[in-house]
């Protein structure tokens, strides 16, 4: 989800994941004079305000809604409450000691217990600890109300009171509410709201979810006992989400191309190199089928085609009936054999590329075409993708890939 959101804006307008961390002081420097703006890590309010000033897309677990403007678009994602607590437990279990040695003694004790004990025993031992409660007990209600309900007050509330407070926060702030188990529905609702390209497939980037799932009935019961407020909230949110989406018209590729793409592509401003109009991957990626950016915000920013080998890019052109050459600047293929089985379509028509050599890239694929409107569409298709490991280069990168796109362009003939 985060990758999809970030790709829809310029790389420099998507907030880095560590920006809100107190350790991330390098973002708070005077860019011209090179002097640090503050001697101590800026407080939450300062970081939130700086985020709002710098970025168009922000996601995370910290509530910054008190400082948002009225026209800010806010949505939230819920998930099965007990599954969420057990997922957090699995995440703690996989951590090594160096991951939490800088935390409080209380937090370290909980982390250490998660590495060796089953969840229900941890609940029995640490269930009243401040750190444990803040992490595992009605976490979704807690996050949604963190700016309006103080920690001691929240802990004293009944599950019904917590759910009511969280419900009020959603009704007051959120344009949409979705569920991790049905994420594609939520993201396509957001795409409709903004006129973005609809989502084809959502790839799971956090593979730690699959490493657990062996908890006992006692562990499941313990997780359910900790999340009664979240359960009440989620049951209500299912109906609320359906109500908010009840009047949405169908929104797929056909609707996007008919109603939204001509406006959407105007956010792209190509660089002119002679008569060639060049787009790079720092710009908003209008389309689908990309596995996020590598080296975002730099001249070397690239994006891998993936995860399923079907990708599309939309971009603006001056008008119809122009003869152009379209170019894809490819840094490399995950496996050279996949090049032979990859097909390309321009505005729905199958085309056969020729190849050019250019410095700094593996190859440049060239396609002659004739424009039909004020935008064009490139599709890339292959029935197979590979991870680095499958391609013979052992790596911790789990992304299925096809090739790494650096730039794309059109040039009038």
Quick tags:
globular, 15 strands, 3 domains, 34% helix, five-stranded antiparallel sheet, 19% strand, alpha+beta
Walk me through this protein's architecture.
With 413 residues, this protein is α+β, with helices and mostly antiparallel strands. The protein folds into 3 domains: 2-72, no CATH class; 76-245, no CATH class; 265-412, Jelly Rolls. The protein has helices spanning 2-7, 44-54, 81-94, 105-116, 119-126, 130-136, 139-144, 151-156, 159-173, 183-194, 217-226, 228-245, 253-259, 261-264, 337-340; strands at 75-78, 176-179, 271-273, 276-280, 287-288, 290-294, 302-305, 310-316, 323-333, 343-346, 349-351, 354-356, 363-370, 375-381, 403-412. Strand 12 (354-356) and strand 13 (363-370) form a beta hairpin. The chain is globular and about 70 Å long. The protein starts with a helix and ends with a strand.
Total number of beta strands: 15
Helix % is 25-40%
- Secondary-structure class: alpha+beta
Taking all Cα atoms into account, the compactness measure Rg is 24 Å
Intertermini distance = 39 Å
- Principal-axes shape call: globular
User: How much β-strand is present in the residues?
Assistant: 15-25%
Unreliable residue stretches: 29-39
How many strands, which pairing sense, and closed or not: the largest β-sheet?
8 strands, antiparallel
Number of helices: 15
Average pLDDT across residues? 91
For the record, the count of structural domains works out to 3
Order of helices and strands: HHEHHHHHHHEHHHHHEEEEEEEHEEEEEE
Q: What layout of secondary structure does this protein have?
A:
Layout: H1 2-7, H2 44-54, E1 75-78, H3 81-94, H4 105-116, H5 119-126, H6 130-136, H7 139-144, H8 151-156, H9 159-173, E2 176-179, H10 183-194, H11 217-226, H12 228-245, H13 253-259, H14 261-264, E3 271-273, E4 276-280, E5 287-288, E6 290-294, E7 302-305, E8 310-316, E9 323-333, H15 337-340, E10 343-346, E11 349-351, E12 354-356, E13 363-370, E14 375-381, E15 403-412
């Amino acid at each position: 989800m985060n990758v999809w959101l970030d790709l829809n804006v310029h790389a420099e307008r998507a907030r880095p994941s560590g920006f809100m961390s107190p350790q991330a002081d390098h973002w708070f420097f005077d860019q011209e004079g090179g002097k640090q703006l503050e001697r101590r890590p800026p407080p939450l309010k300062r970081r939130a305000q700086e985020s709002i000033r710098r970025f168009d897309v922000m996601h995370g677990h910290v509530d910054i809604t008190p400082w948002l403007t009225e026209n800010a678009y806010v949505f939230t994602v819920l998930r099965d409450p007990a599954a969420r607590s057990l997922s957090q437990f699995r995440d703690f279990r996989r951590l090594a000691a160096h991951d939490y040695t800088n935390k409080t003694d209380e937090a370290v004790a909980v982390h250490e217990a998660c590495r060796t004990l089953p969840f229900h025993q941890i609940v029995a031992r640490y269930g009243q600890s401040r750190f444990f409660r803040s992490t595992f007990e009605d976490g979704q209600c807690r996050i949604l109300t963190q700016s309006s309900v103080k920690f001691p007050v929240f802990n004293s509330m009944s599950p019904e009171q917590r759910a009511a407070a969280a419900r009020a926060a959603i009704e007051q702030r959120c344009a949409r509410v979705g569920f991790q188990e049905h994420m594609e529905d939520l993201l396509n609702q957001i795409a409709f709201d903004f006129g973005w390209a609809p989502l084809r497939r959502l790839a799971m980037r956090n593979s730690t979810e699959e490493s657990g799932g062996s908890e006992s009935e006692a562990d499941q019961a313990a997780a359910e006992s900790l999340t009664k407020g979240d359960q009440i909230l989620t049951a209500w949110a299912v109906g609320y989400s359906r109500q908010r989406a009840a009047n949405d018209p169908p929104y797929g590729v056909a609707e996007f191309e008919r109603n939204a793409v001509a406006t959407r592509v105007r956010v792209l401003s190509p660089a002119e190199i002679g008569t060639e109009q060049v787009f790079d991957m720092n710009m908003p990626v209008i389309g689908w089928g990309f596995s996020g950016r590598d080296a975002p915000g730099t001249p070397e920013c690239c994006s891998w085609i993936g995860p399923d080998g079907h990708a599309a890019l939309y971009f603006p052109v001056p008008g119809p009936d122009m003869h152009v050459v379209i170019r894809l600047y490819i840094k490399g293929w995950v496996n050279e054999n996949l090049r032979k089985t990859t097909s390309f379509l321009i505005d729905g028509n199958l085309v056969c590329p020729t190849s050019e050599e250019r410095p700094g890239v593996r190859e440049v694929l060239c396609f002659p075409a004739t424009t039909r409107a004020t935008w064009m569409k490139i599709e890339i298709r292959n029935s197979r993708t590979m991870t680095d490991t499958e391609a013979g280069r052992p790596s911790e990168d789990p992304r299925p890939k096809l090739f790494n796109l650096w730039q794309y362009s059109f040039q009038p003939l």
